[in-house]
From TrEMBL, chain A:
<feature type="transmembrane region" description="Helical">
    <location>
        <begin position="103"/>
        <end position="136"/>
    </location>
</feature>
<keyword id="KW-0472">Membrane</keyword>
<dbReference type="InterPro" id="IPR009936">
    <property type="entry name" value="DUF1468"/>
</dbReference>
<keyword id="KW-0812">Transmembrane</keyword>
<feature type="transmembrane region" description="Helical">
    <location>
        <begin position="65"/>
        <end position="82"/>
    </location>
</feature>
<feature type="transmembrane region" description="Helical">
    <location>
        <begin position="142"/>
        <end position="163"/>
    </location>
</feature>
<protein>
    <submittedName>
        <fullName>Tripartite tricarboxylate transporter TctB family protein</fullName>
    </submittedName>
</protein>
<keyword id="KW-1133">Transmembrane helix</keyword>
<feature type="transmembrane region" description="Helical">
    <location>
        <begin position="24"/>
        <end position="45"/>
    </location>
</feature>
UniProtKB/TrEMBL annotation, chain B:
<feature type="transmembrane region" description="Helical">
    <location>
        <begin position="197"/>
        <end position="217"/>
    </location>
</feature>
<dbReference type="InterPro" id="IPR002823">
    <property type="entry name" value="DUF112_TM"/>
</dbReference>
<feature type="transmembrane region" description="Helical">
    <location>
        <begin position="7"/>
        <end position="33"/>
    </location>
</feature>
<keyword id="KW-0472">Membrane</keyword>
<feature type="transmembrane region" description="Helical">
    <location>
        <begin position="110"/>
        <end position="132"/>
    </location>
</feature>
<feature type="transmembrane region" description="Helical">
    <location>
        <begin position="385"/>
        <end position="403"/>
    </location>
</feature>
<keyword id="KW-0812">Transmembrane</keyword>
<protein>
    <submittedName>
        <fullName>C4-dicarboxylate ABC transporter permease</fullName>
    </submittedName>
</protein>
<feature type="transmembrane region" description="Helical">
    <location>
        <begin position="249"/>
        <end position="275"/>
    </location>
</feature>
Amino acid sequence: MEKSEQQFVADSEPLYGRWNPNSALGGIFAVLAACFLFYVVPGYIVIPSDMQHPLLSPRFLPQLAGWMVLALSTLLMIDGLIKPPKREEVNEFRRGVPVMRQALMVAAGIVYVLFFEELGAIGSGVLATALLFLASGLRNPWVYALVIVFPVVVTLLFIYVLYVPLPAGTLWESLSLI
Amino acid sequence: MENFSEVLALFLSVDNFLAIAVGVLIGVVVGAIPGLTATMAVALALPFTFSMEPVTAILLLVGIYKGGMYGGSITAILIRTPGSPAAACTLLDGYPMAQQGKAKKALKTALYSSVVADMISNLALIFFASYLAKIALNFGPPEYFWLICFSLTIIVSVSGDSVIKGLIAASLGIIVSTIGLDAVYGTQRLTFDDYNLMDRVSFIPLLIGLFAIPEVIDFYTSKVAPHLRTAVAGASLTWKEFKGLLKTIVRGSVIGVIIGAIPGTGATTAAFISYSEAKRTSPNKANFGKGEIEGVAAAEAGNNGVAGATLIPLLSLGIPGDVITAIILGAFMIHGLTPGPILFQENLTLVYALFCGIMVSSVVLLFVGNAAIRYFSVIADIPKTILLPIVLMFCIYGAYAVNNSTFDIGLMLAFGVLGFVFNRTGIASAPFLIGFILGPMFEDNLRRTMLISKDDLSIFFRGPITWVFVMLTIASLIFAIRRYWVARNEAAV
């Protein structure tokens, strides 16, 4: 392809406008970095009274990193404004994803975070895996046998082969007391 | 001789051989499954190593690393989906070979090239690591400070498409690394009075969150893609063909070793340089990209030549050369060991036991790789709908096992969401991890230098070693900026 043709192809590729992902991302990071530098660092990092040199301060490294984020995100924002990035093709698989699929994934995450100790490793594993299988729309009832097999096998592997303790479940313990 | 018997006593255990075999197997299997990476496998395996002996634990992770490097090429050849970025070069000729009905030949070529390159790389590790460690014994805090500065420049090379975004991620990683009690003054930093954060952010939840969870989230926020089935067909590689490829394999291995020993350059670069060098010198130049067997051998030799060599800076200087060695560095620390020259002084037996294991891992790779070729269709045909819930389960159990705390599960999922956002916005996660690991080292050496110098800044330039690292840091920065500028201009044309 001739150079002029290549230039034509490049020019005809769709570009984002001024408000593109890079400038938006840069703007968000810049605001967060400013909040970090002027609110979080002074409020949540204590400077000891016997500090000898600013380079030894507990604030030095977080501040240095915070200023770097501020400077770089400003640069990213300016870069996005001056030279908008090329518009990428939207992945077909990311369009029209059922809300239920995503909601079931979030529910599985919640089961693990909130009920891991109450239901135990096996209980929460069974429940979360069932939710994730449902999210994928698996219909074969035999596949759902794996919902029990996997958590049991993995838990036993952790506890008895690798000697890594996992919770048995406080709920079952309290039920057994009743 | 006495040391040698100690090394053998430490190495010759069933656990070590089992760890190597299981590690290589996991690596090949994970590498062979599209969408799962060796980095993810190493991160997930880390919690399993808590109860193991240090040698066994490290060998398991090294085995996964090496297996994963080869496993990535299987999918590249068969379904045009590189399991790792480095395998992208293998598909240039591997996939056309598979389309021509020579899949088995391509896979065998990839395997034998990988094993030979791995052996050469291991020998380089054994010969050079201890020598470099001896030099590093002369390092004090100022020298280490500059060494860390030089290592921080590797962030540029692992930043992906945008260096600015990579540097932002690294800075965020440094900020997260400062959470906890201050090492010198004992005051709280960014803990928000939460006792869970006082002992710093746990390494394993962060690691699993950044590298495994985003895959899971990405899968459930996309529609289910059709499952690709694969087939291994055609004739195998003959001894005559292999002999003809040896020169290319050795050259690629040496390129891999040199590039692997330089922190941050990586297997992808090595694979492409080896490939272009093979193409330049080959009489079948025109066939490259159309199914040339030499192309597969060169790419795989370059790619795998890096594996042992990246451990040279890790073991001798204590600095990670890439993301996986950064995870292995974390594994050393979890087991109370600090890689670097002191490791060679205080734990020489352990180092040599590791070397023995690393050599054995190459032989194991040969057998496991051969089996993987035979049974590949079984491995790759596990659908993600079944696989990812198990991956998530391993992530959750692994994160919990660190401190027996559900706080770590929440922390891991939070980092998972962060990693997912990073993926969607084109920010690489690797710089975040490098920043998280090197941040505290940077601060520690800066403070120690200031304390021994009594605030005299001239100590930072006290001798030839510091000057060498200052120059290397500046040169690396200039090189990185130049490369970024060239890539930016090329993208603009």
